Amino acid sequence: MWLSNFAMESRSSGQNDHQVVMAQIWICLAHGKCTQSPRVHSEEGRHSAGWSLFGAAVDLIGDLLACFRNCSNPTLVLQTFSLMVVYLFRLDANERAEKFLALTVSHAHHLGFHRSKVVLQMSAFNDEMVRRLWWCLHAMDRRMSIETGHPFIIQDVNVDTPQPRDLSDDWLTRYKNDPRTSAELDSEIHSELSNNECITPIPYLTATIRYSRVLGKIWETIYSANMTDMSPTPTLLQYLEQLVHGAQKEISPDFSTNQLGGSANTLPNDCPWWRKKQQMLMRIRWLSLRILIRKSILHQSHRPPDTRLDILDNEITCIQTACQIIREFKQVADENTISAYPFLHSLVGATLVSLGLIIKEPSFRGDYGDITLHAAKSLERYCHRTWVSGRMLRAICRLSQIASRVLCSNESPATRRVTGGQAREIASSSSYPTMLDLSKGPSNDVTTVCSDAVTPQPPAGNPVMTDSNATDRVNEAPSMSFPTLADPSQLVMADFDFEQSFINDIAPLCQPYGCPDTFSDMQPGAPASTEMTWLESLLGGE
Fold it and tell me: Which residues form the Xylanolytic transcriptional activator regulatory domain (predicted)?
């Protein structure tokens, strides 16, 4: 099905539209296959990511540039490309996803989808479809930049596209073929918005848009090229914190952390899972912004002596926020963990921050050690439920091992200090490579597997937690459990062939020009590799 001759050489416009629709279906199936299948060592495991289905979709589309001209509905093509970006991001193929996203945004710019004067001239149905598509591209652009450390493609100063409206599917279906514009249907739209009782994803998209705009401001303020060697001042930190707090007042309270001490943990029992998931995900995003604001200070190697109290305050804020993220993830019920991938990067980042600060300041262990260990165990068990990339799996196993070695000790946190020799022993005791270390190719032995999930016991004599969340102990019955595979040791650690091709996309081309060994080093702020490197440095320091 995915052979190159499956795509026809010459197609009419209608045929091309049909092929693009079919490609959308294959991409959705590929995503579903990836979600439902764990990364196991078998012939089935090699197809567990749905890559063959994605290849069939690409062949259906044909020439990636000509398809924009051949298809009569440009929005349909852009929607399909957006699905491709989401799928590639799911595989941690960020380098390839960036290229598809750049092509998609470029053509959206060409069509004028970033300008209100173009969008408002369309029919009301097409107007709404373009609004939703454009702002999804905007959110993906911001998310991709955070993961890769590369600049934004979309510049907010050039955008005035109206935001999506909470119009129901029934209303949109009714006016799908109506040529009237939104201005001509203003009374009907106002009536629908006033009387619509359906629960739709649009409030979540609206919250995501607001979050993405704030994220852009924070990124430009702290992580722009001219700020790489500068530390944010207390005044700047306060301004950015207020920016995050104020932005949440402009969205539905369901998607905010401004209530209940930072986390609205009371959700109605009749609320559907997808809605709860959206609310939890938005709260985690806002919390992650607080860490992003302060993370650059954590990674500083040289600090003036007179800033000791400010640094301690920053570390306390970061570890408390990281543990809030972990507690949000603990609300995910067992039957829903298979679809919890959107939480993964945030949970990995929060665990890295919390563990790193415990290593740096052992007194944090009493209050935050148990929940950090629980997070590391949850991450490793999560890998048994759904597909994760080879480099993510290696990073999670490495993180889990470090957490177990550091936190599973009978020594009291007040006396335990990780000396340089002990740290190097911990750091060298694992063969797991550093997260996203693209300078080291994957093992040629695809039979390399992950060790059994680490299930350490809590430290004996661990002091009682003193904070308000002392109930989050690892020895309590966790709210989330993970049934493992029949043979949990059969998770494939090495990259599959198609994963290796992602690295080969850019690695051979980059070396002659003197690029860094690790591509995330090209831009400050690529969080995964930066935080893992920071954690390793804490382990290896004297």
Answer: 97-170
